[in-house]
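LAB NOTEBOOK - FOLDING QUEUE
OPERATOR: T.R.
BATCH SIZE: 2
PURPOSE: Compare the predicted structure-token outputs for two unrelated chains run back to back under identical settings.
PRIORITY: normal
REVIEWER: second-year student, initials M.K.

ITEM 1
FIELD SEQUENCE / FIELD STRUCTURE:
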Amino acid sequence: MNTDFIKGIIPPIVTPIKDNERVDESSLREHIDYMIACGISGILAFGSNGEFYMLEEDEMETILKIIMDQVKGRVPVYMGVGAIRTSKCIRLARLGVKMGAQGVSVLQPMFLKPTEDELYTHFAAIAAAVPEAPVLLYNNPGRTGYPIPQSVVEKLAHNVSNMAGMKDSSGDLTETMEYIRRNRDTGFKVLVGRDTLIFSGLSVGAVGAVCSTANYMPELVCSIYQHFIAGNIKESLEAQYKLNPVRLMMDKSSFPVATKDYANLRGRKLGNPYLPNKPSPAVQMENLRQELIKAGLL
């Protein structure tokens, strides 16, 4: 199975919505073209910043149809799967692959805290349901309350033929390195899921990053990766240092509203988050604006 396309900067695309919480198709199409023009390497549909947990399955199908039509094969599209129930994850993975997604990204179940055997069975069953597609694990302990254990990842990487890699949002570089070290003999590809660690992750063998910040400053985010692979290490690190204060200010907003806030401040017109989330209050919005100014992005 060819997994060479799994690399670079992959934004978890936000879901632009109108006041009635219906998808804003024209804004979504424009946003896709904007990010592709700025150098992204792929698009993750229904990631955490895509507010997947707010969407019904019919809404996902509508949104993915728009994404696939607008992308037109210019970059790979990954189907994000974040349900708790294994059978629902299988249904969503199959939907994504049927509609043309080239890969599937699967978050560990939320709310529950499965045993290692239960986690292995869950992920292996989803991968078996889409044997034609590379599957990526999505480790996000900050949102689910627990990490995917190294032993489970190692077992999956060595025993499930289409378990191609993972996105690690732990923010723990040692964890990231161990995911890489333990599974490098299988061609397992690790993507960094913490925007402040793109440079660090690339330095220890990650093949790229899934970055919410690429929704609103893709030119800067992509430059970290592009400089690094070109051997311009100093320039790559300086771009990372420029990004970090902007990203860190997001933590003062409620999750995940700051991605849309920042994008709207830069003129993207992506609408509000789904309720009950609201845009950041005025004081925080000004903090976000000031960070963009300091970074030369406004």
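ITEM 2
FIELD SEQUENCE / FIELD STRUCTURE:
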Amino acid sequence: MNCAQVRDSLAEYQLGGLSAEERRGVAQHLEDCADCRAELAALERLDELLTPAERVRAPADMWSRIQPRLRRRRAPWWQGLLASPRPAIAAAAAMLLAVAGIWLTTRGPATTIETEALASGYQEQQIVAQWSSPLADDAALGLMFASLNGDVVEP
């Protein structure tokens, strides 16, 4: 037997709950292993400390006196959904309808004149902001700016 097996069996060994074969295996291991002997000695000492403890029986009506004073725990929010899923289904359906409505109303041409104007304004701001950067490629920024304004003539 190894130390892990013996330590798992030490309490049963001490109380005499092992079969004769298991008891021999544990005893043989204990002869060779000082760590397991120390563990058994600690268990025996613990047993000696607990033996004089007086065993007290709880009064029969103890629980009936304690229970009314306990506060009720609040159930997690999702347990209400399990008890009655109708509100959750209604909420999911409403959410689905709202998303579908938004999708249908915003569906249309990918770019309009207004969004193109906003995009070009944003691009101009970005080009101007990058112009003074020491790592900026002035020629590339100039071409991008000119293409936004329609100044580039294609060869």
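REVIEWER COMMENT (ITEM 2): The chain has eight helices and no strands.
FOLLOW-UP: none requested
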